[in-house]
Design goal:
Layout lengths: L8 H6 L3 H36 L10 H22 L2 H9 L9 H16 L6 E5 L6 E5 L5 E6 H6 L2 H16 L2 H27 L10 H32 L6 H14 L2 H12 L31 H6 L5 H12 L3 H11 L3 E2 L10 E5 L2 E6 L1 H4 L10 E4 L6 E2 L4 H9 L19 E5 L2 E5 L6 E4 L3 H6 L4 E2 L1 H15 L25 E4 L7 E5 L4 E4 L3 H13 L1
Parallel strand pairs: 1-3, 4-12
Antiparallel strand pairs: 2-3, 5-6, 5-7, 7-8, 9-10, 10-11, 11-15, 13-14, 14-15
Helix pairs in contact: 2-3, 3-8, 4-8, 5-7, 7-10, 7-11, 8-9, 11-13, 11-14, 18-19
Length: 557
């Protein structure tokens, strides 16, 4: 304080960079020990062979060659450090298949807004945002030597967390970034965990190949299986040693970093209840085991793979576990909120479960619209939005009524004319059934294209995982009944397939015009869809996407 400089909590945390240098020293020692052991074995074998021809020659374990090994190990450590940490954030994001937020997605926009708020509260730190397109519940943070800082979240957590919980999660991850804990963790994962994750994914791809059942290719399949088995042996050996090295490096990752980040999140948000609720929500659901970076687990707010070691507090767990016990974290946070866990659990239970939507039994009001001195219609409000010639001054009247008014006098149409100026309306798609223009419509926080005449929906395949993890949509009794019948049929050993693959009503892709494939969405969910693989678009007839959502939620309940 003598120099007049104010030392804050964040300044103290930033002074912990010595641990990064320790990581490099450990890496150099790891290379030296590995090279030394291999070289000593080779040297001993060479000595034993030479001793038969030159008796009396002495064996020296250490010598000038040891210095050479130290130099080799140091050079190898430098190269490993450089190539592992070069664009480390990009490499890890690639392994996780992370995507930048969609500007047209309501949930993604909330994530962006919350991140802006928390980063401002944390001192104006600039962070990138990414979303993992999977239904698990988890969050992560990354930082590298080049200065990139990233906060990420899975679609499952983003779709289910409340705004308060989302603020607490983002505050926790930004606290990791500000304190440099995140940089230390990213470097540790990049040195070995990233390679373990890559090899594990290759191993999964290789093991997922199914042998051919055709007699013509039976011999080739057997040869492929033997070849893949032989090739997998060195992969598993390398994976074992890399994973072992990663576990050793994880000793440098202190469990205390999670406690510190929890405390910082509470200071930033002043809302310990939301942080406890978020951690409980993540801990009692699928965190991503088998789907997201189990070998780079230190970057996540909770270990994707449930581990008994994480829930212990002995010396061994403290050394080798990167995450503290969830029960202990919740206890500390709930003490700050003066609450108990039962209250949090009860609140989350009330928030879950399928929602009910009322059947719309009222007949839709229909309108006539004047164009070229001729009345056209009748149309519903949604159908009016598909007419190219419809404008604010277009004359309209209710069907079977004589009172004439302009389209802009209807609040719904006035809002439509305002929304029509957005770029999304410039993307034109034609209904494959009615051959009418599809209109963009918000659905579960993002935009899909709907036909105002047959009520079908066109969706990009990349958006479907987001839709299926969100629980904003309510279902009518009719949709629930159809979903229940399909579920019962699917549960039979030999379900009745009534799908007409060679359908007379051939549908063409609204984008490229090619014939779409008529198929089931999957053998688990017998919903008929039309799919264009070239454009990655899927067409659902009326209510089909709602029935599919209802089926998926039934499976998850």
């Amino acid at each position: 304080m003598g120099n007049g400089k104010i030392t804050t909590f964040w300044d103290i945390e930033k002074q912990r960079t010595w641990r990064i240098y320790t990581l490099f020293v450990f890496l150099a020692l790891l290379y030296f020990v590995s090279v030394f052991i291999i070289f000593s074995i080779v040297k001993l074998l060479f000595y034993l062979r030479q001793s038969f021809s030159i008796p009396g020659e002495e064996y020296h374990l250490f010598g000038i060659d040891t210095i050479c090994m130290i130099l080799v190990a140091f050079a190898a450590a430098i190269l490993h450090w450089y190539y592992s940490n070069r664009n480390a954030v990009s490499k890890i994001l690639g392994l996780l298949h992370a995507q930048q937020p969609d500007k047209r997605d309501k949930y993604h926009n909330v994530f962006n807004n919350v991140t802006d708020e928390i980063s401002t509260s944390a001192g104006g730190i600039q962070v990138e945002r990414y979303v993992l397109p999977i239904g698990s519940m988890n969050a992560f943070a990354l930082a590298d030597i080049q200065g990139r800082k990233v906060v990420g979240i899975t679609e499952g957590l983003l779709s289910r967390a409340t705004r308060g919980e989302l603020q607490a999660i983002v505050a926790h991850e930004i606290a990791h970034i500000v304190s440099n804990d995140c940089l230390e963790t990213t470097i540790t994962c990049s040195l070995f965990g990233m390679y373990s994750e890559g090899l594990a994914q290759l191993s999964k791809i290789a093991s997922s190949r199914e042998p051919s059942t055709s007699p013509l290719f039976e011999r080739e399949s057997t040869k492929d299986a033997v070849t893949m088995s032989l090739l997998s042996i060195p992969v598993f050996i390398i994976l074992f040693f890399i994973d072992l090295s990663s576990q050793l490096l994880n000793m440098f990752i202190s469990r205390e970093k999670e406690y510190r980040a929890d405390a910082a999140a509470v200071r930033l948000t002043r809302d310990p209840q939301s942080l406890a609720s978020a951690l409980y929500r993540i801990g009692t659901h699928w965190r991503g085991a088998g789907s997201v970076g189990e070998y780079i687990r230190p970057i996540f707010i909770l270990n994707p793979q449930y581990s008994k070691l994480d829930e212990k507090e002995d010396v061994f767990a403290t050394m080798f576990s990167t995450h503290p016990p969830l029960a202990r974290r919740l206890q500390i946070i709930l003490n700050l909120a003066h609450m108990n866990l039962d209250t949090i659990a009860e609140k989350i239970r009330k928030d879950t479960g399928q929602r009910t939507a009322a059947e719309d039994l009222k007949p839709a009001v229909r309108f006539m619209a004047e164009h070229d001195n001729t009345w056209h219609g009748p149309f519903t409000l949604m159908q009016l939005q598909t007419l190219n010639w419809m404008g604010p001054e277009t004359h309209m009247k209710i069907a079977d009524h004589d009172d004439i008014f302009t389209a802009n006098e209807l609040p719904a149409m006035s809002y439509f004319f305002h929304k029509r100026k957005e770029p999304i309306w410039k993307i034109r798609r034609i209904c494959p059934t009615c051959r009418e223009w599809l209109i963009p419509q918000e659905y579960e926080g993002l935009y899909l294209w709907r036909c105002a005449f047959c009520n079908g929906i066109l969706a990009e395949q990349s958006k479907l995982p987001r839709i299926f993890v969100r629980e904003e949509k309510g279902y009518t009794e009719r949709v629930r009944r159809i979903a229940s019948l399909i579920k019962e049929e699917t549960a039979q050993k030999h379900p009745h397939f009534n799908l007409l693959l060679d359908s007379i009503n051939i549908r063409r892709c609204p984008k490229c015009g090619k014939v779409m494939a008529h198929k089931f969405y999957s053998y688990a969910y017998h919903i008929e869809i039309d799919e264009c693989q070239a454009c990655k678009l899927t067409w659902f007839d009326a209510d089909e996407i709602e029935i599919l959502q209802c089926l998926i939620e039934m499976e998850n309940d």
